[in-house]
Amino acid sequence: MRLPTFTQTLFIITATSFTWHSIEHVALDKVSLATQVVLFSSLAVFLSIYVYIAYYLPLVKGHRINFAHNKWRYEAPRLIQTATVSLLVLYISLSAVLSQEYSVFSFLIAGVELAGLFSITSLF
Predict the structure, then answer these.
(1) Quick check: 11 and 114 in contact, CB under 8 A?
(2) For residues 5-33, b (16+ Cβ closer than 10 Å) or e, as one string?
(3) How confident is the model at residue 1 (pLDDT cuts 50, 70, 90)?
(4) H-state helical runs in 26-105
(5) DSSP code of 122?
(6) pLDDT tens for residues 63-110?
(7) How far apart are CA 4 and CA 7, in angstroms?
(8) Contact (Cβ atoms closer than 8 angstroms) between residue 46 and residue 87
(9) How confident is the model at residue 115 (pLDDT cuts 50, 70, 90)?
(10) How many angstroms separate the most distant Cα atoms in the chain?
(11) Which residues contact 53 (CB under 8 A, 6 or more apart)?
(12) Burial (CB count <10 Å: 0-12, 13-18, 19+), residue 116
């Protein structure tokens, strides 16, 4: 694990404060069941692909995916594309969930929260 840069630290702190505020003020019972299922399933898909690529392949299989020079396109094309689509769906569904508290700014708040998630995952 390495130390975060100033920008990563800023995103982590901002995302943590927004997430903490969202946990306290956003009621999931006001959100439709379909939106909840989409939100949590897209989060589960992304996290499972992340754990598979970042931990399982290098530690168990002894194979690291080379992201330099776009070699991931040949080594794990469907995994990266699936993770990208799940992140887009996560962003849209998280914005829909947050819209009850933040209204117009929900897309911005969801983007900051996901940037904080990326900053945390890039440390490992």
Answers:
(1) no
(2) eeebeebbebbeebeeebeeebeeeebee
(3) low
(4) 33-51, 72-75, 77-102
(5) T
(6) 787 777 777 777 777 888 898 899 999 999 999 999 988 888 999 999
(7) 8
(8) yes
(9) confident
(10) 46
(11) 65, 76, 79
(12) buried
Answer whether 39's CB lies under 8 Å from 94's CB: yes
Tokens read off for 82: 């699936």
Q: Is 109:11 a contact under the CB 8 Å cutoff?
A: no
- Distance between CA atoms of residues 49 and 92, nearest Å: 19
Chain position carrying tokens 């505020």: 21
Report pLDDT digits (tens) over 4-28: 788 888 888 988 898 888 888 888 8
